[in-house]
Amino acid sequence: xxxxxxxxxxxxxxxxxxxxxxxxxxxxxxxxxxxxxxxxxxxxxxxxxxxxxxxxxxxxxxxxxxxxxxxxxxxxxxxxxxxxxxxxxxxxxxxxxxxxxxxxxxxxxxxxxxxxxxxxxxxxxxxxxxxxxxxxxxxxxxxxxxxxxxxxxxxxxxxxxxxxxxxxxxxxxxxxxxxxxxx
Length: 183
Ligand code: 3AM
Description:
Blueprint: E1 2-8, H1 11-20, E2 28-29, E3 36-44, H2 47-58, E4 63-67, E5 69-77, E6 80-88, H3 92-107, E7 120-128, H4 132-140, E8 149-151, E9 153-160, E10 167-175, E11 177-180
Parallel strand pairs: 4-11
Antiparallel strand pairs: 1-3, 1-9, 2-7, 4-8, 5-6, 6-7, 9-10
The protein binds ligand 3AM.
Residues 4, 38, 41, 43, 122, 159 line the site of ligand 3AM.
């Protein structure tokens, strides 16, 4: 099974994100139901390894924290834009959660993640040079910000690859501690 750990976005963030996703011609917009913030991509694992992952994640004790999305950006691959995303305000609570997940998964036997944590919410996938239309979209929406929302749990998602979009299902949810790190 193909797994990743992430945040299921609070409902008050989904609508403002969905409103951004128009006006760019032939790009593959991420369906609103798929919006998430990846904390750790795991990839294909056997069911017994998935159980160990679940056990490791369930043992974490991490406080809740506020999350706010803001700004837009792009990831490039081979000189072309591969995705458009909404940025995330950095917060010590988010960084602590990501670091604890990484440590727990390594202890459970997964190889270390080599890529630096770069929190974002993917909005579109494409394969295109930076066209004037994309540049204008980035500029027009760059002041985008969502309201702040309290994060009280994180999620182990299962991903089923599809022709156009993957489908994500919730394998498990893990409550954060009731203590809360304020903004
Ligand atoms: O959170 P986003 O949507 O940016 O692109 C995949 C998606 O990213 C990414 O994991 C998230 C949940 O599927 N992903 C897919 N394959 C990956 C890989 N081999 C990967 N991330 C790292 N390594």
